[in-house]
Amino acid sequence: MSEIKMTVNGKPVRGDVKDNTLLVEFIREHLRLTGTHVGCDTSQCGACVVHVNGKAIKSCTMLAASADGAEVTTIEGVANGDLHPMQKAFNDNHGLQCGFCTPGMIMSGIDMVQRYKSAGKTLDEAAIRHELEGNICRCTGYHNIVKSIAQAAGEM
Amino acid sequence: MHNANYHAAHTTADAASLLASAEDGVLLAGGQTLLPTMKARLAAPSDLVDISRAEELRGISIADGAVTIGAMTTHSEVASNSDLQTAFPALCSLAGRIGDPAVRHRGTIGGSLANNDPAACYPAAVLATGATISTNTRDIAADDYFQGMFTTALKEGEIITSVTLPIPQAAHYQKFAQPASRFALVGVFVAKYADGVRVAVTGASEDGVHRWTEAEVALSDSFAAEAVADLAVSADGLISDLHGDGAYRANLVKVLTGRAVTAAG
Amino acid sequence: MSQGIGAPVKRKEDKRFTTGKGKYTDDIRMENQAYAAFVRSPFAHARVRNIDTSAAMVMDGVIAIHNGAELTGDGIGNIICGWAITSKDGSPMNMGAWSALATEKTRYVGDAVAIVIAETKAQARAAAEAVDVDYEELPVAATIAAALADDAPQIHENAAGNIVYDWEIGERDATDKALANAAHVTEMDITNNRLSPNPMEPRSAIATFDEAEDHYTLYTTSQNPHVARLVLSAFYQVAPEHKLRVIAPDVGGGFGSKIYIYPEEIACLWASMKTNRSVKWTSDRTEAFLTDAHGRDHLTKARMGFDAEGRIVGFKVSTKANFGAYMSLFSSAVPTYLYATLLSGTYNIPNIYCEVLGVYTNTVPVDAYRGAGRPEASYLVERMMETAARELGKDPAELRNINFIREFPHQTPVIMNYDSGDFEGNMRQAMEAADWAGFAARKAESRARGKLRGIGMSCYIEACGIAPSAAVGSLGAGVGLWESAEVRMNPVGTIEVLTGSHSHGQGHETTFAQVVADRFGVPIDSVQIVHGDTDKVQFGMGTYGSRSGPVGMSAIVKALDKVEAKIRKLAAHLLEVSEADIVIEDAQAKVVGTNKSLAWHEIGLAAYTGHNLPEGMEPGLKEGAFYDPMNFTFPMGCFICEVEVDPQTGKTEIVSFVASDDFGTIINPMIVEGQVHGGIAQGVGQAMLEEVRYSEDGQQLSASYMDYAMPRADDLPNFEVLHHGTTCTTNPLGMKGCGEAGAIGTPPAVINAITSAIGNNDLNMPTTPAKVWAAINAARIAAE
Asked: Where is the 2Fe-2S ferredoxin-type domain (chain A) (predicted)?
């Protein structure tokens, strides 16, 4: 067991966890923030994407202990009173159906928009599709997810 | 996944001593392969020594016609480094296509090289550039380092600290992605230097990353796609799986080499 | 903006999903919760000689380990198949016994032999690994061919030769005669690849036993919680129906795979009683590949005959369908009544005969997956049409056009009676949008860049809205396929609709509310849709087969009719006019031609106070209805796919995809288009990417996303989705259903495009780059 401390969605948290606890398990089971999902075992589906120190990572493929001291943002922490422009864009463009992949899509979407903006690059449709390589959706065929991220990119 | 004792190492020396005192310890770099392997219960180390936060193992520096990349430098850091984008864009492009954005934020060059997955991208660049892999005990030439699928020259307890890649005059990496995993079904890295061309192939062989010496000779003579057009690639010893047989991979080796040469210009 | 029928209203349910507040089964934690893990067979076919739990029982946190003998000993019944199919010779189908925990034999890799209950998930898994099962390996039949071989192992004692049934439909002699006299006969061998449904939410269950009340509660990932309760009680004897509550909360996609009641749900319920703990189990992805019902997996030989003008004269089909190791809930109906009845496609075909051999193999059970039988039929018919056009030297659109059905109702030779449609209109609209006429120029431009370009079409039809209960009963169904609804208008005028349909991505909370808004002019925010809980909702048959619109909403309409009738009567009484003078709009009951009206809350209050009701009227405003459909519905459409192939690598890119569909009345076009997008993506997945592969010894070679290629964003183009609707004549809203169309119509359009690009028709799904490259080479060699 190890004691870990981190900031999650702006609030300091701590926990005593077994050393093999994955970050997603800490978030879901210890913090009971269940918006972050697990959809595969091989780090491919992206349902578990959160931000650690401002970068999108797969929380199923990081130990909670490795995030000791980190700033973590989950889907529950992106709205600031009002919905985040990415959340609103998913609603505006019907970018979700069953909703299971959606938190990961939104976290990846925010990350890619921020990266492209800070690099001064254009996030066009082809770039969005390429950037979504690590997020699988079975419902939407991605058409409206791509539209959602494109809309949010213009508003963020 | 089985439990393992977790240790955070902030220096290479710490990591070495933690590894030495562990019963069956392994280094945890970005964890993008090790953790899924442990989740699948295919690996069960007693101890994990996390070196991902060892600052001395991070960073990219360009000097004397070579780039040195700290072992814990992430794929995304390599892909987005502006100096490197100018000096060696093929390497940035390669790093920017490993896994996916979230994987690239965690995965490291050192981890990739230590694992030496037969379908990984970095080994192709390291071998094609004749890079030097530096560890806490020695320097290893790329030609000596890769010893077959998941096998390297690393000794027990040895820790990769950095990789130094001579910057080529021209280079390109062509990756043909396996449709499911998005690893390289075949990847070809072509690097042109004043003293000749080196070609490394990943994804194709049952022996892991390897050089295609016939193509190197032909391309050293004439750096044009046509130079490899008439070379034969044998399917013997190439990987055959759900996604393509040896003959298909042999075809890809040749096609991708030609395209890499054209793109390298 | 209107919120009624036809308005692209944004979804009400999105807020919770976009903010991480959805409540899926695995998100729920019960008091006193323990975790289950299953001990699964590593062998595809093995005799279980002994299960030694001694080492596992003493491990940390282990509460209990139970095996199949204990389960059956407690009277838990075998898993059933709910649709009885009769073979050609009149014999019933050969249903092998399927116990939730295998007792004597395991029949596929992943077949569970024991359940381990422990304090934590990790402890349960570790203990499951430590259970020592002594297996005697038996010979394996992992494919249809292996199961039908002379020396094949016998998988179930009562299914000689591993045959489930040998079924037929249509007129064999007449079809043979028509083919013998045909001017041209097109023959094909077609494989329909095996798929894993892969909803992104893995299956999960939490079972709780309340000893004091002798009552069970099951939270589960189900498309049909009432059906789950019915079979868990009536057939599996887990608990009587009135002592079992099944809740399907937010469910992360189903695509058919969450229709069935799986061994894990049965075992968790039973174990919760044995241990007096809440028992939770959540599948991981590999377990999902190993245990979720698969889809498709047909081998077909077909012959289609044409007269000298190109009119179809007969169609003869022989299909072998893989059932896997056991017969899952609706498995028997999929390759029979959901497949062979659609073999007429959109065409006038006077003679059709189809025989289907159902085959057991040592693989995961196979059942309905998005489309269920209809994608297999559509793929067959539309590849036959394309191939015939090429053989006859006719334009594929024109060959289809001269064979289209144009008069309705149309009775096919294979049961179905199509009510409506404009097949040519849809095809013309799709061709226009796809610039069919300009293809030759685009092909030439591609060729100049060293690429091969192809275009392919499919004019699919399918049958939705399953189905008239009496009709399906006569065909062997064990249940009726109606739907139920209850509409409750509250004293303050808000409305709750309780529906037996279940939403797991379809957006019912929005579209169903739109139907109410359309009827009364109330805002959709004042309408709450309640679903997924057997204690709340009166009854239901659930969501599959694109039935929530044509069947589920029809039940809501019937209940709304009753509520409206009562409101009219009440309003007429209160306003002292005749009922004929009352109109209901803008959330008011108005008297025509006057400014007299009752506000919505005034109506609600009047109904519930009961102070002034018409003679004999009961207080309250709550009405229920069961709707039994009159017929199947027949969505149809034309899909056109255009591809570009890199001949050096075989890599195929879809450069454009047009879908023109007839779904009848559309409630919310935004949601309908989303359904089409998702269906097309799954169709592209089947066509180009996805396949479950087994080794000869029955090990799944593609049991993770490392080897099973799920469609990703960069595998797909933007889709152009168009509508060209006719009104369904057999349900009150005129709806046909849209949930499966994309998955049904897409594969043949994609394959027709690729085969046209590469000039080789001998190509099976999925068209991996390696296969396409090999086919290009084969065509080149053949041409030389």
From this structure: 2-78
